[in-house]
Design goal:
Length: about 350
């Protein structure tokens, strides 16, 4: 196992021992992995409170600096969110907070431990036009290169907006996710089961939240099914080509622990929503990385038939990942994009093995 991957796993998983001191090249690769997986501030808290002999002092200082920077950004984003929330409340619009803006305060001891770059809110489908009118009055506009907003509203599930003066992004969702990924979410049931935060906005029920976060992570990981059943699952999972971010799995594990959500209930909800298999892969990742008193093996054998092109590219990508994991050079961070049509004629982005 590469020392930088071993160190990262040792800091988040009970079953892995930390390696000896990293070389400067390995510590740079470790820091790049932490930033890729968006855990540099999360682990910076660990480094600040527990000296890490494997890390050079300079790398430790950079991680602690990431933590302090994340705390400042979180404070600004929370202030921005509260201004938006106040305007929506004044106009009688119900909304729910999603992902980083909610999770950072809900399940982390300090909002700076969970970095986020934008703010996501969910509104009812019938309120979208009114919400956009309110947000336009307080300085939001659609990005210049975005497709026409009417197309986005018809064919997508959220619309990104940018504050004209302050240049931060707000995403307005009217569905949790694309209907192809979450085909059977009942909107009324979802809203009726929500709780209210102390600030008055709505938050998803714990079991719905876990199912949603699992579906979100599954959407991004084109190789999830292959990685979930691989004997070196944790190593492949941390490789950047996996397209999974470790912070998403930490979110799920912490939410399940803090809100007392059982894996069985989360998988049952995901199955009701039509994403049981893909959410099961994410549960398998959490079982691999994090210790738990209650585990459900949600991973399944290959259920969907892959086209020849899709299958060949995935096999080549897995082989390339293994070569990098077993080699001496640090893990590469990215590959050029390739669009591969799958059996449902939905174009999925995965990486092409064409770099030098």
């Amino acid at each position: 196992m590469k020392p930088e991957i071993q160190l990262l796993l040792s800091m988040i998983s009970d079953g892995v021992r930390a390696p000896a001191a990293l070389t400067p090249e390995q510590s740079a690769s470790f820091l790049a992995l932490c930033r890729h997986h968006r855990v540099d501030s999360y682990l910076g808290h660990h480094v600040q409170n527990n000296r890490c002999p494997a890390l050079p002092e300079e790398t430790s200082r950079k991680m602690i600096a990431s933590l302090h920077g994340a705390k400042l950004r979180a404070r600004r984003m929370l202030e921005n969110f509260q201004r938006v929330a106040n305007d929506l409340h004044r106009n009688g619009i119900e909304f729910a907070a999603l992902k980083g803006i909610d999770l950072s305060a809900r399940i982390y001891d300090d909002p700076g431990l969970r970095t986020f770059d934008d703010i996501d809110i969910l509104v009812r489908g019938g309120d979208v036009s009114r919400v956009l009118e309110v947000l336009a009055r307080i300085g939001f506009e659609t990005p210049a290169r975005l497709l026409p907003a009417s197309w986005v509203r018809k064919y997508h599930f959220h619309l990104p907006l940018v504050h004209k003066e302050e240049k931060w992004m707000l995403e307005v969702h009217w569905r949790l996710m694309d209907q192809r990924i979450l085909p059977d979410v009942g909107e009324e049931e979802l809203w009726d089961s929500m709780r209210r935060s102390p600030a008055g906005y709505r938050i998803l029920s714990p079991v719905h939240y876990v199912a949603y976060l699992a579906a979100h992570a599954a959407k991004h990981g084109i190789l999830n099914r292959r990685i979930a059943v691989h004997p070196r699952c944790s190593e492949f999972l941390l490789h950047p080509y996996s397209e999974i971010r470790l912070i998403w799995l930490i979110d799920i594990a912490r939410l399940m622990a803090v809100e007392k959500v059982s894996p069985e209930d989360a998988l049952a909800t995901a199955a009701d929503w039509g994403c049981g298999d893909s959410a099961g892969d994410i549960q398998a990742f959490c079982n691999t990385l994090f210790s738990s008193d209650s585990k459900a093996d949600g991973s399944a054998e290959f259920g969907r038939r892959e086209g020849i092109v899709e299958r060949q590219v995935k096999v080549r990508l897995m082989n390339k990942m293994q070569q990098e994991l077993d080699g001496e050079d640090p893990c590469a961070e990215s590959l050029p994009w390739l669009l591969v049509p799958n059996k449902t004629f939905h174009v999925r982005p995965i990486r092409l093995l064409t770099h030098g």
